[in-house]
């Protein structure tokens, strides 16, 4: 009988650079490099591919003890996915107030945002985003986050999502990791939060 795949994860600064590159090697992620909420302007007009490549490299901080911008998920030891999670203030676009779901409760302290999921080709539809969402909780407790906040899409019944939308995560993925809906600012967008245990 075939055993189920083993899921593990590492903060990206503790992962190998090749693992990060492998996850970001195809699809929209290869172009975006998880910079959509990082660049102050409109991503394709105001940043070059070289700048986005360099920014991801700097933000993940592979091989250092410095802060990092996300987690790499592994299936049976092979790099398979990514989830972006870091302090909310590290996302300039979230503070632009251009969208009703951005910058909610700006005075709330200790908020870490979960903004993006990437699943490597060949691993899709395997439930990996659920594993990655659960990993954000474990990681958030390790780094002392007070609240985790996500911005998932909930498609209307019978409707599917395009890649751009799915990259922020689907509502069900967050709910299964113990997040709760705190706002429904648009027809499809939800704001979810999970308050974490403050273990001293």
Which key terms come to mind for this protein?
200 residues, alpha+beta, seven-stranded mixed β-sheet, 7 helices, 28% helix, Acyl_CoA_acyltransferase, GCN5 family acetyltransferase
* Total beta strand runs: 7
Number of helices: 7
**Any idea what the shape is?**
globular
* β-strand amount: 15-25%
Give a quick account of the main beta sheet: strands, pairing sense, barrel closure: 7 strands, mixed
How do the strands line up in the largest sheet?
1-2-3-4-5-7-6
Q: Structural class, please? A: alpha+beta
The Cα radius of gyration reads 16 Å
Unreliable spans = none
Helix content: 25-40%
Order of helices and strands: EHHHHEEEHEHHEE
Mean pLDDT: 90
Q: What separation lies between the terminal Cα atoms? A: 43 Å
Protein name: GCN5 family acetyltransferase
SSE inventory with pairings:
Layout: E1 7-11, H1 17-23, H2 27-32, H3 43-46, H4 49-60, E2 70-75, E3 78-87, E4 111-119, H5 128-143, E5 147-150, H6 163-166, H7 171-176, E6 180-183, E7 191-195
Parallel strand pairs: 4-5
Antiparallel strand pairs: 1-2, 2-3, 3-4, 5-7, 6-7
Structure commentary:
The chain is of the alpha+beta class and 200 residues long. Helix content is 28%, strand content 22%. The chain contains 7 helices and 7 strands, in the order E-H-H-H-H-E-E-E-H-E-H-H-E-E. The protein has helices at 17-23, 27-32, 43-46, 49-60, 128-143, 163-166, 171-176; strands at residues 7-11, 70-75, 78-87, 111-119, 147-150, 180-183, 191-195. The chain is globular and about 40 Å long. The model has no long low-confidence stretch (mean pLDDT 90). This is GCN5 family acetyltransferase. It comes from Pedococcus ginsenosidimutans. InterPro entries: Acyl_CoA_acyltransferase.
